[in-house]
Design goal:
With about 250 residues, this protein is an all-alpha fold. The chain has one domain: Four Helix Bundle (Hemerythrin (Met), subunit A). It has ten helices and no strands. Helix 2 packs antiparallel against helix 3, helix 3 packs antiparallel against helix 8 and helix 4 runs antiparallel to helix 5. The longest helix has 28 residues. The chain is globular and about 50 Å long. The protein starts with 17 loop residues before the first helix and ends with a helix.
């Protein structure tokens, strides 16, 4: 199932791994592999990337960061081709992403000249950037009856879907709220009326997709292999200013 109708599809710069993700999902369609298995695989890929960063094997780190992005898309694709949407998978994916983001940035801090305070700012910036992108993207999808496992506001524990346990949904939802709740509130505070405005134009969403996790990991991979490890953390800390610019543009649309 496509997330958006054809006329509202945009070039998603963070979703470059989608073609390979679809290929992986189609090859796993008739196997016993589940979307959760693929999520676990992207966690492993992310952890290998961290080890490669710490040991300064930057080409290998870049490979596993990009592989992590591809697998991050493949779990959702597999859920779609198998018609097995789940809140368990949705929250596990998000919890794994934020924890890996912390570990990846700490690994970069370890090998670079960045201060721990700049690293904390970069982490907060990356999460706020991703939250704004997801906030606007889910709003756009919900306007066109997108998938039901992604919600604009995560305010209450959803009822488990067929094939998953409510206990698992409860635990992962609570973890999600602890890890993402303040970021969600911060972005909502900055733009509480976003869901009631006009449909976001495609060019705007394409520009905003530079905030997507896939694009963030691609930038980290490129900067590592180009020998710019020392500017990764300051870049993401400073780029956070673009949040205010994107929100200002959205309000004028």
């Amino acid at each position: 199932m496509s997330k958006l109708p054809q006329e509202h599809k945009f070039i998603d710069l963070s979703d470059y791994g989608r073609p390979l993700a679809k290929l992986i999902a189609n090859n796993l369609k008739n196997t016993n592999f589940t979307p959760v298995h693929v999520t676990l695989a992207f966690i492993v890929s992310g952890l290998i990337a961290v080890w490669c960063i710490i040991t300064e094997q930057f080409w290998a780190a870049a490979f596993f960061l990009i592989l992590k992005s591809i697998l991050d898309a493949a779990d959702g694709e597999l859920a779609r081709v198998k018609n097995t949407p789940s809140y368990t998978g949705r929250y596990l994916d998000s919890v794994a992403d934020i924890l890996l983001n912390i570990i990846i940035l700490m690994a970069i801090w370890y090998i670079s000249e960045a201060s721990i305070w700049m690293t904390i700012l970069a982490f907060l910036g990356i999460q706020l950037q991703g939250t704004l992108y997801n906030y606007y993207y889910v709003i756009l999808r919900n306007k066109f009856d997108g998938d039901t496992t992604s919600r604009i506001f995560e305010n209450k524990i959803p009822t488990a879907l067929e094939g998953e346990k409510q206990q698992h949904v409860n635990i992962l939802f609570k973890l999600y709220k602890v890890l993402y709740g303040r970021f969600d509130k911060a972005i909502y505070y900055l733009d509480p009326r976003a869901a009631y405005g006009k449909v976001f134009p495609n060019w705007f969403m394409t520009a905003l997709s530079t905030f997507g996790l896939g694009f963030q990991l691609l930038l980290i991979a490129l900067l590592l292999v180009l020998g710019f490890k020392d500017i990764i953390i300051p870049f993401f800390a400073i780029y956070t200013v673009m949040i205010l610019i994107f929100i200002a543009i959205r309000k004028r649309l």
